[in-house]
Amino acid sequence: MKTIKILSLLALIILVACGPKRERFNYTMIKSKMDLTEEQTKEFDKLTAQYLKKARKTIESNLGNKEATRKAIKTVFAEQDEKIKAVLNEEQFAIYAHEIHIEREGREKYNSTIIRDELGLDSLQQTKYNQANEAFYTTLYDAHDNYHGKPAVYRLYYKEIDKSRREAFQAFMSADQYSKFEQLAIEYELGQSEH
Asked: Is 87 helix (H, G, I), strand (E, B) or coil?
């Protein structure tokens, strides 16, 4: 569990700190699910931009100290969430809270969990699925410096590393389960985005 938290933190730090070219979190998708008014949209955009800058500064000021960075980022996120909560109604905030949690943990990893649950795996298969995914994402995140900002290179790394994961899946899944995994991987667009 501690390893998963450390890997999540490292992924978060890497992804939030990755320059201004792309947003770390898909706020456009989140907004589309909340049915915001024009005024809410303006305030939401203002707050998310403000806290993205604050998160970057927090990371930069705590470089080399993972625990301090984790605590500081958690504080920044809590502040952002409180400010956004004041802008949204209860139903909108529930949607925001759910979606931002997924974004902060990693949407692809979340989608991988959905896929796992849709495959009808037994408990042993689920354990093996989780282990293969953990090894896959650890290897992928460790290579981050090689592909960051280069989507084509990212997809090549992903594809190469994914071969081992898929071989592991084939070893413990039935042919039908693996076929369904392949269909769901396409549907959930696994490997299509660095974020």
From this structure: helix
